[in-house]
């Protein structure tokens, strides 16, 4: 394979991944899909939900890769001060900290694998979405971006699930 063919193949895979992730957002909310919107557009990620102590403690540790359109959504029973670290986490991650309305309060870009330095997300955090490192900058995910997911309290949601 020539260098041009290799570069073309990488560009094609990148374009395909972007088209799949940026595909039109489904109407119904699903637990395995996190949808984000902002002035930059919309994106969706296939997510695993970590909603108990054991799942939140394990997180994405020991994984050697994660699909580009995938992530993990950490859900707490009540808003709280949230802090993460990268112990035993082998891939760079973006950490997106959200309040009870599903509004992004803070984004930490490219958390370093295996780093045990605490990453504070702020107070009154109900959810944390982890995606592959650098994707939040690719999309423009920033404070003010809204999440639609059934674990966002619908009575307070900035972007509520549609009625069924």
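Sequence proposed for the structure above (164 residues):
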């Amino acid at each position: 394979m020539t260098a041009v063919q290799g570069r073309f193949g990488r560009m094609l895979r990148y374009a395909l991944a972007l088209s799949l992730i940026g595909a039109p957002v489904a109407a119904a909310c699903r637990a395995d899909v996190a949808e984000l919107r902002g002035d930059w557009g919309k994106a969706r990620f296939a997510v695993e939900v970590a909603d108990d102590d054991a799942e939140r403690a394990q997180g994405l540790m020991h994984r050697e890769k994660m699909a580009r359109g995938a992530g993990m959504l950490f859900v707490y029973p009540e808003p709280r001060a949230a802090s993460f670290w990268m112990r035993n986490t082998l891939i760079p991650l973006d950490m997106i900290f959200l309040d009870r309305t599903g509004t992004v309060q803070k984004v930490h870009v490219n958390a370093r694998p295996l780093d045990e330095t605490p990453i504070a997300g702020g107070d009154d955090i109900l959810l944390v979405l982890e995606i592959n490192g650098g994707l939040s900058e690719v999309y423009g995910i920033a404070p003010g971006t809204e999440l639609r997911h059934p674990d966002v309290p619908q009575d307070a949601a900035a972007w509520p699930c549609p009625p069924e």
